[in-house]
Amino acid sequence: MPIIAKAMELGTEIANSGELKAFREAEAAVLANAEAYDLIRQYQNGQREIQEARAGGRVLSDEQQQDFQAMQEKLMANTVVKNYFESQQRFDQVIQTINQILQQAISGNSCSGSSGG
Is the pTM here over 0.70, yes or no? Predict the structure, then answer.
């Protein structure tokens, strides 16, 4: 089917994109750096606790909010972590743009998206 071939072609282009390569390199750097890895784990645990609290209808104390803010600042002060999150954001943006273009094409709306690399 021609549509499947086009999907494979798109997948190959995504796999070869600079954004995905940069993200994979940043991910490898995090895995190789114990401090960066631990910071991300702590941050994810903090996020999960906040989500659980909100889902349970609990309000975070000022101290909890300040602790999480401090954790975010410490996280982004680490250049390995910062690079990881920035590269993830750039790759996510590429995927979102592709999805928007696909949705526009499927719905019959004109596609005026920019080309990405």
Answer: yes
